[in-house]
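Propose amino acids for all 398 sites.
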């Protein structure tokens, strides 16, 4: 059975109900009114009853949310940069830090107040990087906690591809900033390929300038608990954001992605496509997609899509798209969400042409993820992820 919600509108609509397995949920407040601060003490300690935390297993956060997890280790950041790109390690007082966005929850504020130094990657003005830049972030080790900060800056008309590759063990919370100048083009692939014990809570803040283009892809495969919260904010007309995501949860894993696209200026576009698969007892994925179109954001065009494929019994996917519109002068806005098992018609089609059931099931899953994988422009990264998904399918016997 597939549970699906789809809606597209060009009419003014405010506070549309959320969707989770087809059931309505009353939003806590408008995203325009959500609190943000760099001061960790300005946030109350979350209990899990708050709207922002109601899906997250708080006991598994290892104290990242309540101040009981001081840094006991450090994550390492190894950078392999394109020759045109500048890489710096800066102290927390650097005036460039924090310009992309303000922490919107206590963990992000804790990470802001606790990191020691930050890695800043800069694509100079009018420069196209000749190859990808890769940052490998390795956790502090099993039983340890660390906090971090990364900023990627694409100056006016700069163009680059950046890969953030997370791996290793331990608990890690960080803020990642993407600052795009006018006319810049930045492609980001953020990979969470943690060890089984790892906990990672990360806030991504994107600030998009006039006519700038951000292609942002999140791939989450490993870790005990991973919660990624990307936020995109437009600062001038003509901005374009394409947010893609792929996740595959195994038994006991909790993988959570919470997106917010803030359309506050006219003539901007956003498109969101996230796809996930789940297998094994206790596998749990959460996808929250919030889009706010403010009164001044005329001629906005936006759409968000989430699809989840449940491969075994005992797995659960929560999908909650939210669309809040404060003006009727838009090009279009909508969302779609569906959670279900294999498409019987696709399986029948393949089996009718002589393809064995097991192979047919694998082909369906590969095709399900293909839309996201094909948009990853770094061949070696795409091939690595394809192999990782194949390994997941072998584990479940699909």
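Proposal:
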């Amino acid at each position: 059975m597939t549970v699906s919600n789809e809606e597209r509108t060009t009419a003014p609509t405010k506070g549309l109900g959320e969707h989770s397995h087809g059931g309505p949920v009353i939003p806590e407040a408008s995203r325009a009114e959500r609190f943000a601060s760099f001061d960790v003490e300005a946030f109350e300690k979350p209990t899990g009853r708050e709207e922002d935390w109601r899906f997250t297993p708080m006991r598994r956060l290892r104290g990242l949310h309540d101040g009981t997890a001081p840094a006991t280790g450090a994550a390492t950041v190894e950078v392999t940069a394109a020759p045109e790109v500048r890489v710096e390690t800066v102290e927390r007082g650097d005036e460039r830090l924090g310009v992309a966005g303000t922490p919107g929850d206590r963990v992000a504020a804790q990470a802001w107040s606790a990191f020691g130094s930050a890695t800043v990657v800069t694509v100079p003005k009018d420069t196209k990087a000749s190859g990808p830049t890769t940052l490998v972030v390795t956790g502090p080790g099993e039983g340890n906690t660390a906090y971090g900060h990364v900023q990627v800056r694409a100056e006016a008309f700069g163009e680059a591809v950046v890969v953030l590759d997370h791996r290793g063990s331990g608990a890690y919370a960080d803020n990642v900033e993407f600052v795009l100048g006018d006319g810049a083009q930045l492609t980001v692939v953020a990979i969470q390929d943690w060890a089984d014990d790892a906990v990672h809570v990360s806030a991504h803040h994107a600030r998009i300038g006039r006519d700038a283009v951000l292609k942002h892809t999140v791939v989450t495969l490993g870790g005990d608990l991973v919660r990624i919260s990307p936020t995109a904010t437009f600062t001038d007309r003509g901005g374009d954001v394409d947010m893609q995501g792929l996740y595959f949860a195994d038994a006991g894993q909790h993988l959570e992605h919470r997106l917010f696209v803030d359309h506050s200026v006219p003539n901007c576009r956003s498109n969101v496509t996230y796809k996930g698969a789940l297998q094994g007892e206790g596998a749990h994925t959460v996808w929250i997609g919030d889009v706010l179109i403010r009164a001044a954001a005329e001629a906005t065009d936006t759409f968000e899509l989430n699809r989840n494929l449940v491969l075994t019994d005992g797995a659960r996917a929560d999908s909650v798209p939210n669309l809040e519109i404060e003006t009727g002068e838009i090009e279009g806005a909508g969302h779609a969400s569906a959670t279900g098992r294999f498409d019987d018609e696709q399986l029948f089609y393949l089996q009718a042409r002589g393809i064995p059931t097991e192979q047919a099931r694998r082909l369906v899953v590969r095709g399900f993820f293909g839309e996201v994988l094909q948009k990853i422009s770094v061949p070696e990264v795409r091939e690595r992820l394809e192999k990782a998904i194949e390994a997941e399918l072998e584990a479940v016997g699909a």
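DSSP finds four helices and 21 strands in the chain. The CA atoms of residues 160 and 368 lie 28 Å apart.
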